[in-house]
């Protein structure tokens, strides 16, 4: 069963304030995309070693404050594909 990260797939927007200056942190993408020039093209399973919290259940995003440069690694829980595709929001 495939699991999806709602943040990677644009289904969710993360709004987290910087603990240093209070500005919003920007999602800079998956942390492994910053390991080396070719890491973005490698199979994600090679990073499932627990480094910075990356597992089959979580995908880790790098959050950066564009104001002061603060960086934070944030694990995001992955959801089963059917949990996301079967969810129909009800707006009132």
Computed CA radius of gyration, to the nearest angstrom: 15 Å
Structural class: mainly beta
Number of beta-strand segments: 4
Low-pLDDT runs of 5+ residues are none
| Largest sheet, strands/sense/barrel | 4 strands, antiparallel
Topology of this protein?
Layout lengths: L2 E3 L19 E6 L27 E8 L5 E10 H5 L7
Antiparallel strand pairs: 1-4, 2-3, 3-4
Could you walk me through the main structural features you see in this protein, from its secondary elements to its overall organization?
With 92 residues, the chain is mainly beta. 5% of the residues lie in helices and 29% in strands. The chain has one helix and four strands; from the N terminus they run ββββα. The protein has a four-stranded antiparallel beta sheet. A hairpin with a 5-residue loop joins strand 3 (58-65) and strand 4. The N and C termini lie far apart (33 Å).
Properties at a glance:
92 residues, mainly beta, 1 helix, 4 strands
């Amino acid at each position: 069963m495939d699991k999806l990260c709602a943040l990677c797939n644009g289904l969710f927007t993360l709004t987290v304030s910087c603990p240093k200056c209070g500005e919003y942190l920007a999602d800079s993408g998956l942390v492994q995309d910053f390991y080396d020039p070719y890491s973005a093209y490698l199979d994600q399973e090679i990073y499932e070693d627990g480094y910075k919290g990356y597992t089959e259940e979580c995908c880790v995003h790098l959050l950066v404050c564009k104001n002061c440069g603060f960086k934070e690694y944030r694990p995001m829980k992955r959801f089963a594909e059917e949990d996301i595709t079967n969810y129909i929001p009800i707006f009132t």
